[in-house]
Design brief:
It contains nine helices and no strands. The protein has 205 residues and is mainly alpha-helical. The protein has two domains: 55 residues, Orthogonal Bundle (Arc Repressor Mutant, subunit A); 131 residues, Tetracycline Repressor, domain 2 (Orthogonal Bundle).
C-alpha cells in the first residue's frame, strides 16, 4: 500500500476559537491578579471582572480558581511525551534526548511569554503558588522519566532515567529564567531552546 501524507485536521471553528480566547483571557486575568493581590485574596468574581466576563461564564470553563492555573497542563504533558519519543535515536545519552525533546517544546512556550512571565511573578508573591509550580515541575519530571524509560526499554525508576529527568527539568528552569531576562534586553542572547542548549553544553567536559 503506498504511503500517503497525513490528512491535516481542519482548523477550529468560530465557536471553538471564541472559547479558546475566553479561556486564555481568564488565565491571564487570574495570573495578573494573583501576582498583584496574592492568590488567597483573589476571588472568582474578581477574575471574571478582570477578564470582562460574568462569573457564570467563568464557571463554564473552570470549577475553581485553582483550575485556572494551568488549563493546558495535560495537553502539554502529552505533547512532551510525543516529542521525547520523536527525538532521533542518534541524539545521544538520555539527558541529551530529554534536552532535545524540551527544545522541540520551546516554541510553544515562547508563544506564551506573557503567561510564563505572569506565572513567575505570581509564584514569587505566593507560597501557595510556588508550591503549585513545584508540583507542576515534578509532574513534568515524571513525564520525562517515563518517556525516557520507554525509549530505553528500562524501568521508570532506573537510576540513569531518574537522574536524566531531574537534570533536564533543572536545566529547563534555568533556561526559562535566562530567556525571560533576555526578553527585557534589546539584544537577546538566545531564544529559549538556545539557552537550554547552552546550559546543557556547559555540563559537558
Amino acid at each position: 500500500m503506498p504511503d500517503h501524507a497525513p490528512i491535516p485536521l481542519p482548523p477550529p471553528g468560530l465557536r471553538e476559537r471564541r472559547k479558546q480566547v475566553t479561556r486564555h483571557a481568564l488565565e491571564l486575568a487570574a495570573l495578573r491578579l494573583f501576582a498583584r493581590d496574592g492568590f488567597a485574596e483573589t476571588t472568582v468574581e474578581a477574575i471574571a471582572a478582570e477578564a470582562g466576563v460574568s462569573t457564570r461564564t467563568f464557571f463554564r470553563y473552570f470549577a475553581t480558581k485553582e483550575d485556572v492555573l494551568n488549563p493546558l497542563r495535560e495537553i502539554r504533558q502529552g505533547m512532551l511525551r510525543e516529542e521525547l519519543l520523536a527525538v532521533p535515536e542518534d541524539a545521544g545519552d538520555l539527558l541529551s534526548v530529554a534536552v532535545a525533546g524540551l527544545c522541540r517544546m520551546a516554541p510553544d512556550f515562547e508563544g506564551e511569554g506573557d503567561v510564563v512571565r505572569l506565572w513567575a511573578q505570581a509564584a514569587y508573591s505566593s507560597a501557595l503558588l510556588r508550591g503549585r509550580l513545584y508540583e507542576v515541575l515534578l509532574s513534568w519530571e515524571d513525564k520525562i522519566r517515563r518517556a525516557l524509560a520507554e525509549r530505553a526499554g528500562v524501568a521508570a525508576d532506573a537510576p540513569e532515567v531518574v537522574a536524566a529527568a531531574a537534570a533536564a527539568v533543572a536545566l529547563w528552569q534555568h533556561a526559562v529564567e535566562r530567556w525571560q531576562a533576555d526578553l527585557e534586553s534589546d539584544q537577546p542572547e538566545h531564544d529559549l531552546a538556545g539557552h537550554l542548549r547552552a546550559l546543557h553544553a556547559a555540563l559537558r567536559p
